[in-house]
Amino acid sequence: MFKKVLSKKNKKGFTLIELLIVIAIIAIIAAVVFVALDPLTRFRDSRDAARWSDVSAVIDAVKVDQVDNGGSYLSSVGSMTAGEWYMIVDGASMTGGCADNNTGCDQDVSGVGNCVDMSGLVTEGYLGDVPVSPAGSITWDSGAANGDEGTGYVIKKDASGIVHVQACESENTDEIAISR
Description:
Distance between the termini: 92 Å
Helix content: 25-40%
Strand content: 15-25%
Shape: elongated
Number of domains: 1
Radius of gyration: 28 Å
Low-confidence stretches: 141-146
Order of helices and strands: HHHHEEHEEEEE
Structural class: alpha+beta
Mean pLDDT: 83
Strand order of the largest sheet: 2-1-5-6-7
Number of strands: 7
């Protein structure tokens, strides 16, 4: 009988209380790490990085096309009125023209009909696709049955030939814009 009592006391293992304490400590550490990493901010930064990349790709394509064509812009860019903002669109997504009441964009498009078709840069090989903002297309109502969609990016050409490309929205950055 005495041996049975001793053998029960010599068994090794964790009690339920010890296991619960370890699990609670691991949960607290996991919560602290999760808050410290702040995944929402990381996702916002990621979408802003994609916007920076898209803006850079568009302005690079416009400028390389200009150099390759002896200083002449793509016809749709060349026909833009100097100093006015235009919504960048892919020609396939335009059904009824453009509108200036694009509430989804930080930068107001200057006037009704101010959109510029950048699909020529795709067909000429300067862009793989006309980029679309990570937030999705900017939709406005121009009277077409389904409305119209822009890419979430706008462009302006100055009289001096400087081209400005800007993202319609940003999340953790004040403004996403490049000028060349």
